[in-house]
Amino acid sequence: MHAFDHLIALANLRGILDLHCQLQGDWALDHPPLPAGQASYHLILAGECRLEVPGQTPLALHAGDIVLLPRSAVHVLTAGKPRNAAVRRVEQPGRITQLRQGQGGLDMLCGRIQYTPHATLLEALPEVLLINASAPGNRERLDAIIALMRLEAEGEQLANQSVVDGLSVILFTLVLRHFCEQQQHLPGVFALLQDKRLAKAVMALLADLGRTWSVEALAATASMSRSTFVRTFTATAGIAPAAWLIQLRLERAQLLLQQSATAIGEIALAVGYPTLSSFSRVFRQQLGETPAHYRQRLRG
C-alpha cells in the first residue's frame, strides 16, 4: 500500500451528498461551521458563483470547478446581490434534497466528507482547496466521477443516495491526488513524503504501527542519525517524530474502537502500547476521554 492509502484508511472517510442546487438570479447560501471531523465540498456543474470565506479574497467559481473545505470553515456561496430571495427546498422520497430558485443559472452539488477529527491527512490540507476546471493536469477521472454523481443526483433509481455518498469519497481521494500532483511545496505529511529519506521512515511507520518504534529506529530506517532525523523531521512536518507517532497510533486506535469489537487491551497491543494502562493514559491525555468511553459514545 502507498502511504496515502494508509492515511486514507486511518482517516475513516464517509461521504454524504446533502444538496442538489439549481439557482438563478440573486441568491446566497450561508454555511455555518460544522463539528470537528467534517469537510465540505461543492461541485459546480453549470453556471457560476462566488465563494466567500472570512479573512480571504472571494473566489469566483465556474462550471467544472471543485472546492473542498477540509475543516468546514464558515463560508458563503452567493451570486449577484442577494436581497432575501426565497430559495425553495424540495424533498421527495428516493430523491436527493434540492434547493431551487428559478430556471437555469447555477447547477451545483453540495456535500460533506466525515472523518476522524484531526486526522493527519486532513490537517495537512489548506483551509480552501480549489481545483479549477481549467487547471493543468489530467482530469479525466475527476470529470468521470462528477458526471456519474450528477447522473445519480438527478435520477430516481434504487439507492441513488448510497451511490452518490460512496462516490463522494472517491471524489475526495481524486481531488487529493490531483492537488498533490500539481503542488510543489506541500505541508505536513505531504512534505515528509516528498523527502526521500523521511518518506522511508513514514512508510515503515504506517505499515506497522504496532511495532514498538523508537526515534532511533525511525532514524535508522531513514539512514540518518537520531539528531539529524529529529531536526529534519520537525522542520519539515512542524511536529516532532515522537508526537507524530502518538498521533498516528491514536488514529488507528480510534478506527479499531469504532469499527471492531476487539478488546481494548488487544487494540492497545495493535497500536504499539504494551499495556492497557499505558494506552488508556495516553488516549485520555490526548483525546480527553478513555478508550472505553470513546467506544461507548460512538455506538450510542
Describe the 3D structure.
It is globular and about 65 Å long. It folds into two domains: 3-182, Jelly Rolls; 189-298, Homeodomain-like (Arc Repressor Mutant, subunit A, Orthogonal Bundle). The two termini are 33 Å apart. With 300 residues, the chain is an alpha+beta fold. Helix 3 (140-154) packs antiparallel against helix 4 (160-182) and helix 6 crosses helix 7. It has a seven-stranded mixed beta sheet with strand order 8-9-1-10-3-6-11. A four-stranded antiparallel beta sheet has the order 2-7-4-5, with no helix packed on it. The mean pLDDT is 90. Strand 8 and strand 9 form a beta hairpin. Helix content is 45%, strand content 20%.
Keywords:
12 helices, 7-stranded mixed beta sheet, Arc Repressor Mutant, subunit A, 11 strands, 45% helix, globular, alpha+beta, 20% strand, 4-stranded antiparallel beta sheet
Short summary of the structure?
With about 300 residues, the chain is α+β, with helices and mostly antiparallel strands.
